[in-house]
Each structure stands twice: as C-alpha cells, then as structure tokens.
C-alpha cells in the first residue's frame, strides 16, 4: 500500500469517526459527569444534586474502602493523599510483615507485578502468551492431522489467536507508520516556528514537500477540530506514538517476556499468592490515578476535582502492566482487596482471551461470599460483548458451562467466529493482511446468559455528555444482555500523577463512576448487600428515550433503542439511586 493511500485512509477514518461521535470541540464543566441533565444540561449522574437535596443534613454512617485494581496509583497526589486506605496494622518501612498477612509493608495496598528487583512495566497481550505456549506444538499442524479432543480445543485456540495476532500486528504496524509521519510534520513545523506546539496557522503556512505531507496537513486540521484544538491533538499524537511503539515492542512481541526476571513467582502455580512488592504506584500510575480521582478525590479540600463518594478510602492494587493483565494476578488482587476490608472493587481493565479463568472465578465467588461488589469496564472496541469474548466476566467456567458447550454440538474449529485461510496456520501472521480473516455474522444464543454467574457484578459501558443520538460513546462496547448500565466516560477530567489533572475517555472512566456511586450508597446505607446495590443502581437509571447511533459489526452506522445496548436501558443516576436506597433500607 503506497503511503499516500494510507494517509488518505487515515483522513477518511478521522472524518467517519467524527460523523457518529460527540464533538470534543467544546468547553465542558470540569465536573460535567457529576451534573444533572435537567438543571445543568449535561447528561451526568446528578451527584451534586444528590448532595444538595438529599444529603445536606445527613452524615455518612461508614467509610467505604474501594479497591482500585489497576496499573498503579499516585499516593502523593494532592487530591488523593488524604483519601487513601492505610493499613494501620503495618509499621511503614520496617521491612516486617507486622500484620502477618504475608505482604511486607503493605501500607496503601500491594503490587502483584513487581519484586525486590523492580516492577514489570510492560507485558504481552494474552493472545501472544497463548501463541508462545501453543505455537511450537501446532505450527506444523494441518486440518488432516489426527488430534484428540483436548488437542482440538488447543489447536482451535491457537488458530484463533494466530489469526487475530496477524490482524493486530498489521493494524499496529500501519497505524504506527501514520502516527510517526504526523508527529514528524508537527515537530518540523514547531521547530521552524521555534515553538513546542505549532498553531493551526503555522500548519496552514507550512509548505509541504510533497503530496504525502499535504495529506498530513489535512489530517492535522481535521484531527485538531475533532479533538478540541491542536494542543489536545498534539498530545493525542504523542500518546498514540508511545502506545503503538509499546504495542510493537512489547505487547505483540512473542520474544518479549520479563515476568520471571521482574516478578519471580512460579507462574505455573496459579494458586500462589505471596509475591510482589509494596510499590503501588509502579512505573506508570496515570490510569489508576485517574480512576481513583473519579471515585473519591477529596471533596473538602477546595482544590482539584470532587470525587463522587465523600466517605471513601482508596486501596491501590497493582496488577495491570502496559499490556494484558494475567489471570493469576487479577485473582490475587481480588482476594487481597476482600481480605483487607474493601466493599467495592473497581476493575477498569479487560482482554479478549483467558488463561486461568478458574482461579479468577474462585476469587469472584470469594468476593461474592464476603459481600463485596465488583464493577468492571465493558471495554473500548465498540464490540458486542454478548458475542465477543471479554475477560474477566461474571460467568463461571464450571460443569454447567462445560455441559452447555457440549450441547451446542459444534466442532471446536467450525465454532470459530471467522474463516481462517489455511496458510495462516503455517506462520506467525506478521505478513498477513486484514483480509486473511473473514468475519461471520454474529448469532446470539441467549441460553448461555442463564449459566451460573456472579450476583455481585456490574458491567459498565461509556456514555457522552449530550442527550442526543450520539449519547453512546463511539468506542464503548455494548451488550443487550451483558452490559448492565452506561455511565459517563467521555472527556472525563480527573487526577493524574504529579498533582495534575487531565481529560481521558474510556469505559475505564465509566466504571469508577459506578464504583464511586456504589461507595456513596454504601456509606449512607451500610446494611445493603452487593446484589441490592446492583439492583438499586440498575433500577434507578435515567432511561434513554431516543434511539442512539453506533457502528455495528458490519461497519454500518445504525440507530437502535438504548435498551438494545444494555440491560437497564439507561445512564446511572446518583440522585435517584439514593432515593431508591432509602426505600430499600426501610423495608
């Protein structure tokens, strides 16, 4: 593909994306997600209205510990340092496990992806780890090879992972090339004008050396408009460069694996629990800090932002590197949170493949037995999670699930959601094009949604600020049966390392809105059970009455009722949830 065609594709992609997403070329109140649709004109969750009209003469009855299982939290942030969970049974810095829980000096939480040797910053995608295990075993296998039932399952997983790997690598390679060219032009124009960031006027005046650079100028102008200014677009391009650089160097690199060196656990032992270190910030605390601020940034210090909950302690648990989290670490993170008093666990992460799901299922059941609510982000791929696999999830891999799988009577290979060209089984897919995978039309079998699952789980999609056809955030995953609610997750301002604040997008931001709301409810109504909190949040949503736009699996922009995108058919609402909680409490 010639460079100018790649650039033209990128430009058309930007234009098509902006056609069905809410504009960023707008100045929003920094706390719009806490505002009220009727009173303020933004589709927030009415947090401030609830504080003013329902809670002004009430005091919280308990402080609620919310565990943030993420990539790290800045414990020195000006708006977070006073709302951190502190393990009072530990003496800081003495190198002794004072409370005897197996974790030395776990003052504000624990880091399961580190050791005395340092911290794991990067990791592969789960599908790459699968290829590393099954590649040597099945790289020479063809369809006529005789396999037993277990081998058929493994071979099917290998083929699926290998096909997706090829597509992801191609997409990352092309996108990295585009982003590199855009950054080169931005930096060149900035240097010519002795500026750190060029203005749009500087871009317009820049005389392109060739047709390719002229196309880049169009991309910069269009992207700046969609992003709300060239300053934001410039930052997005720098972030994108880093993201795709990490993707190619680490996430999609089959040869990269520093787990043993930097964590040092016995990874084959999924039941192992005592490993890690107490560095809960880690090398990159941006994502986890942002999540934490949404939940509970100090509401009484007159600086920064106001979190949703006003009587909350943030427990920092690090299990997510830049790459896919590992099931063993997720399970241990959940257990640590439960054992140390968390009542809500926020999980703003996810992946398309599982490895040790049974150990995660056991941890989820443990949380369920101990009365702990789990809040999970639905994901940012604009995919239907009723069809597309998304982990972790609320469903348990047990005898019933195995019986269901057997009952559908499909050969493991024919059950794949796409057709695989045979020669893809012969290589690692790095040179295969996107056309090597042909997507079938998805068919939803609702019987699987009746399989055993956790009652303490809320799955959250992301919404935007305006009550119009673009209310669903364009990136958000959805699911009529598996996404419970939507919450604000677009242009969300919150805490980032260094006592700073930035706007992020994602279901990663929507989930902590629901976690914060859950903590708010529990702080005033401490006797409620997790399933009751879940029910209250779902029953009290602000129903979306108009049809909304999204791109379906065939790339068509369609309008559907919001109830086709999630179980509740609405956006969470703190004001209505607290009113309903009062009625539950009085029963």
Automatic annotation (TrEMBL):
Pfam families: Peptidase_S8. The active site is at 70 (charge relay system), 287 (charge relay system), 508 (charge relay system). Residues 1-21 form the signal peptide. Keywords: Hydrolase, Protease, Serine protease, Signal. InterPro entries: Peptidase_S8/S53_dom (IPR000209), Peptidase_S8/S53_dom_sf (IPR036852), Peptidase_S8/S53_subtilisin (IPR051048), Peptidase_S8_His-AS (IPR022398), Peptidase_S8_Ser-AS (IPR023828), Peptidase_S8_subtilisin-rel (IPR015500), Protease_P7-like_dom (IPR034080). Gene3D superfamilies: Peptidase S8/S53 domain. Its EC number is 3.4.-.-. It comes from the Bacteria. It is an enzyme of class 3 (hydrolase). Belongs to the peptidase S8 family. This is S8 family peptidase.
């Amino acid at each position: 593909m010639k460079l100018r065609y790649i650039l033209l594709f990128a430009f058309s992609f930007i234009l098509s994306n902006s056609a069905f997403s809410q504009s960023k070329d707008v100045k929003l109140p920094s706390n719009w997600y806490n505002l009220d649709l009727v009173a303020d004109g933004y589709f927030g969750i009415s947090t401030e209205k609830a504080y003013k009209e329902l809670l002004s003469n009430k005091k919280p009855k308990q402080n609620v510990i919310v565990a943030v299982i993420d990539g790290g939290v800045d414990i020195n942030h000006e708006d977070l340092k006073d709302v951190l969970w502190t393990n009072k049974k530990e003496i800081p810095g003495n190198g002794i496990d004072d409370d005897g829980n197996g974790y030395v000096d776990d003052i504000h939480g624990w880091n399961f992806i580190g050791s005395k040797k340092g911290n794991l910053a990067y990791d592969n995608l789960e599908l790459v780890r699968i290829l590393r295990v099954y590649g040597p075993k099945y790289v020479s296998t063809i369809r006529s090879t005789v396999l037993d039932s277990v081998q058929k399952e493994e071979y099917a997983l290998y083929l699926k992972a290998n096909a997706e790997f090829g597509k992801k690598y191609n997409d990352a390679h092309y996108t990295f090339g585009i982003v590199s060219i855009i950054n080169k032009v931005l930096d060149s124009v900035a240097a010519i004008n002795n500026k750190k960031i060029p203005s749009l006027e500087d871009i317009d005046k820049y005389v392109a050396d060739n047709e390719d650079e002229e196309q880049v100028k169009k991309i910069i102008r269009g992207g700046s408009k969609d992003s709300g200014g060239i300053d934001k677009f410039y930052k997005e391009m720098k972030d994108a460069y880093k993201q795709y650089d990490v993707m190619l160097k680490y996430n999609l690199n089959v040869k990269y694996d520093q787990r043993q060196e930097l964590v040092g656990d016995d990874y084959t032992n999924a039941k192992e629990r005592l490993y890690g270190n107490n560095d809960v910030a880690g090398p990159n605390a941006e994502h986890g800090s942002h999540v934490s601020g949404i939940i509970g940034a100090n509401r009484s210090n007159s600086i920064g932002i106001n979190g949703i909950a006003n009587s909350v302690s943030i427990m920092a648990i690090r299990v997510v590197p830049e790459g896919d989290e590992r099931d063993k670490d997720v399970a241990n993170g959940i257990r640590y949170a439960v054992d140390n008093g968390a009542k809500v666990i926020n999980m703003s992460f996810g992946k398309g493949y599982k490895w040790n799901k049974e150990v995660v299922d056991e941890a989820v059941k443990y949380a369920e037995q101990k009365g702990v609510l789990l809040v999970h982000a639905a994901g940012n791929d604009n995919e239907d999670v009723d069809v597309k696999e998304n982990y972790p999830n609320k469903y348990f891999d047990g005898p019933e699930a195995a019986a269901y799988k057997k009952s559908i009577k499909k050969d493991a290979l024919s059950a794949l959601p796409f057709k695989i060209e045979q020669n893809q089984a012969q290589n690692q897919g790095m040179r295969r094009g996107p056309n090597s995978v042909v997507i079938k039309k998805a068919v939803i079998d609702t019987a699987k949604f009746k399989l055993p699952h956790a009652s303490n789980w809320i799955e959250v999609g992301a919404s935007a600020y305006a009550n119009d056809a673009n209310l669903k955030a364009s990136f958000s995953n959805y699911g009529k049966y598996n996404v419970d609610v939507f919450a604000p997750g677009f242009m969300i301002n919150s805490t980032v390392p260094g006592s700073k604040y930035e706007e992020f997008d994602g279901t990663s931001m929507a989930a902590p809105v629901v976690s914060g709301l859950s903590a708010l409810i529990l702080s005033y109504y401490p006797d409620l059970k997790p399933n009751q909190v879940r029910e209250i949040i779902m029953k009290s949503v602000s129903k979306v009455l108009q049809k909304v736009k999204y791109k379906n699996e065939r790339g068509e922009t369609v309008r559907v009722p919001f109830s086709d995108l999630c179980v509740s058919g609405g956006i969470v609402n703190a004001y209505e949830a607290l009113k309903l909680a009062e009625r539950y409490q009085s029963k």
